[in-house]
Write a structure and sequence with these properties.
Length: 710
């Protein structure tokens, strides 16, 4: 986070971007949808403003209006949007073409929506200076290579000849950022730029954005539902609800003293690394954002607000007003001065008693999965990919096992083996007495299929858009339980009630549901067979924080009522800390740390776990710890190193022993184990002393571990 004094100085100058009572509407068959009723805010040169709020609050509309990408149905019906003093709404098409991509650039959530899959990275980057600045091919290529170096891609010249599909998600996003900055724009708009990235890649991209912003003095309009990423990047924050700015101020003002009930609601929804499910449920915001076709006369948030007063809050428009004693902090609430001081709900995580263990229901031992690598038309290359390499873990009955790690660590392969989509090469995986590792889904008996169900990240990809909710759940009931039509209909309504949806949802189709409602339907379908185990693969990563909190509470409630064992795959460590009873940390197909959540999230950590925790975005400006940068080369799964798989990136590397000798599994209290050459007491001492240096060769104390191993 940058110094707010610099932000104040920037605002004192003429704004780079200014919304002045901008009213934005979309003309629909049902009438005029007044999405933005009259928005005002400003952004200075070199400043970063974060826009947050639930889906449907108008954040992306603000970004599209700034670029004037509203389509035929959208228009600015009153007010103005000024960029460098000119009204974007009144610019000609020629004027717009001159500023788009040159003076204003945009980075989207999905980098593949910005990259042409049939053109090399180099050609796509070179187009920008050639079109906007008239550069020749040689000059454009030199500039493109320099930009790839600036976004810290290795072998920048080599990347020029690669195609988008040959890059990882983080590399694709770096290329898109390079493409946006190559023309040195004054304003960079970033719409959910890190939502689909691993926590370490996300942290690296956010660090890169901060560094490039300082270097190029570009203003940033940063749109996100992840409040932690906003803290890491921005000077100021604007909280939007139903198209209105309900609160804005510096990061520290808004996070330390939120004065609008909606801002408080968003902050209360967040799981943090200091809370877990044994303490208390997450707070949720009831209801959802209302339709722009029918705006209430008073506060748009009143019907969801626990502090609303009939009359004062519901009869007339409420202006945004300054918060007394805090320059630049404003809130749109008539009861702002009457609200009690807000306290962050962190506290201590609820402790699980020592004797609270239950018998393992899921047991995985020595599990391996090896793929033969193929190459286009030429078939088998003779190389093997070790997706899983001697994996051991367990999940207790009625508890949650969280599996974390970066993309490529083996999480999804493990889920596929458990669900029967692929079979293991070696090892065992059991659910109770049933051995499932070598049994494909079509060979599993019906009783075993019922025992295990899945909930996926994106319900849109698993719900048939042409079928009703009732049909989707009813079909699962008929196939898994053999119910007749009438019994399936009755059970469908009961399951909808279990996931807190009314019975009339049975007649709706997926396009008529919100993201949270779709995920509830997916959970209801998973419950159709009364499963003993549910695999939840990133089930809340794409949801707003308020919807996320509701789904997390629902999963915990269902687990308490049904004693269901949950295998929870996620890259959000705050969610993992809140939900998990046990945690397995995976890296390159191996479990590098396993144990109770309380132990895994306290020193001693495996150095990889330590790096993951340091990368997790924290929605609190006063708790921004030291970042551990993983800057080494990631080994190939086709040629795994003989020693520790993490050695090439480890900031606490002891020496050559890490490269040549597999680390021992150190067994600590309560089944906690860490695969590392550094002894546990050494790790505690090092990790409580702060962030590590990149090179540990000169550190004397860890060498005791090397001598001990020999």
């Amino acid at each position: 986070m940058t110094d707010s004094r610099g932000a104040t100085e920037n605002r004192a100058r003429a704004p780079l971007l200014e919304f002045r009572q901008a009213r934005i509407s979309f003309m629909l068959r049902a009438g005029e949808a007044n999405v933005i009723p009259g928005l005002s805010f400003s952004l200075g040169a070199g400043e970063a403003l974060g826009l947050v709020g639930e889906s449907g609050c108008g954040k992306s509309t603000v970004a599209l209006a700034t670029m004037r990408y509203l389509g035929r149905a959208g228009r600015v019906t009153s007010g103005s949007i000024l960029f460098e003093g000119q009204d974007i709404a009144r610019m000609s098409e020629d004027e717009l073409r001159r500023i788009r991509g040159r003076r204003i650039a945009m980075v989207y959530q999905d980098p593949m929506s910005s990259l042409n899959p049939v053109k090399t990275i180099g050609k796509q980057l070179m187009e920008v200076p050639m079109i906007h600045e008239g550069a020749d091919a040689a000059a454009a290529r030199a500039l493109a290579v320099r930009m790839l170096e600036e976004v810290k891609l290795p072998d920048a010249a080599g990347f020029m000849d690669r195609y988008p599909h040959q890059l990882s998600g983080g590399q694709q996003q770096r290329v898109v950022i390079a493409m946006a900055l190559i023309a040195r724009p004054s304003l960079l708009i970033m719409d959910e730029p890190t939502t689909g990235l691993d926590v370490t890649v996300e942290a690296a991209v956010l660090d890169l954005v901060r560094e490039l912003r300082q270097r190029h003095n570009s203003a940033i309009l940063f749109i996100s539902h992840n409040l932690g990423t906003v803290v890491r990047v921005c000077d100021r924050i604007g909280v939007m609800y139903a198209g209105e700015m309900v609160e804005q101020g510096t990061i520290r003002q808004v996070f330390a003293n939120p004065r609008h009930p909606y801002t408080r609601g968003l902050l209360d929804c967040l799981p943090t690394l200091g809370r877990d499910k044994h303490g208390s449920p997450l707070a949720t915001i009831p209801g959802q954002v209302g339709s722009p076709l029918s705006r209430p006369p008073g506060c748009s948030f009143a019907r969801r607000c626990g502090s609303a007063e009939e009359g004062r809050c519901t009869t007339a428009p409420i202006p945004i007003r300054p918060v007394p004693g805090e320059a630049g902090h404003e809130a749109q609430c008539v009861r702002m001065a009457e609200l009690e001081a807000w306290l962050r709900k962190d506290g201590q995580a609820g402790a699980v008693p020592d004797g609270a263990e239950t018998a393992p229901l899921v047991e995985i031992a020595g599990l391996r999965k090896t793929y033969r690598q193929t190459h286009g038309l030429f078939g088998d290359t003779g190389k093997t990919v070790k997706a899983l390499n001697d994996v051991d873990m367990f999940a207790e009955a009625g508890r949650t096992l969280a599996i974390v790690g970066e993309s490529g660590c083996g999480k999804s392969t493990l889920a596929k083996i458990m669900s029967g989509l692929v079979t293991a090469s070696e090892g065992t995986a059991r659910i109770g007495p049933d051995q499932i590792a070598a049994t494909a889904i079509d060979q599993r008996p019906q009783a075993l299929k019922r025992k295990l169900q899945m909930v996926f990240q994106n319900p849109d990809s698993t719900l048939n858009p042409s079928h009703s909710v009732g049909y989707v759940i009813g079909r699962a009931l008929r196939r898994l339980k053999g119910l007749g039509k009438r019994s399936a209909e009755d059970e469908t309504r009961r399951l909808l009630d279990v996931v807190k949806l009314s019975g009339d949802f049975a007649g709706r189709k997926p396009h008529q549901l919100s993201g949270g409602q779709k995920q509830r339907v997916a959970i209801a379908r998973a419950l159709a067979g009364d499963p003993e185990v549910i695999i939840a693969d990133e089930p809340v990563s794409a949801l707003d924080v308020s919807v996320q909190a509701a789904i997390i509470n629902l999963l915990n409630e269902l687990q308490g009522e049904r004693a269901t064992t949950l295998l929870f795959i996620s890259h959000d460590l705050a969610v993992v800390r809140y939900m998990a009873d046990h945690v397995a940390v995976m890296y390159l197909g191996k479990v590098v740390e396993f144990g109770r959540a309380a132990e895994v999230f306290e020193p001693p950590f495996h150095p990889y776990t330590e790096a993951l925790l340091s990368a997790a975005p924290v929605p609190d400006p006063d708790r921004q710890g030291e970042r551990i940068i993983l800057d080494g080369a990631l080994p190939s799964a086709t040629d795994l190193p003989p020693g520790c798989p993490f050695a090439s990136r480890c900031p606490r590397k002891v020496g050559s022993i890490c490269d040549t000798t597999p680390p021992p599994a150190q067994r600590l209290a309560h089944g906690h184990r860490i695969a590392c050459h550094i002894e546990a007491d050494e790790l505690v001492s090092l990790q409580q002393g702060g962030a590590p240096e990149r090179q540990r060769e000169k550190h004397v104390r860890p060498h005791r571990a090397e001598e001990h191993i020999r």
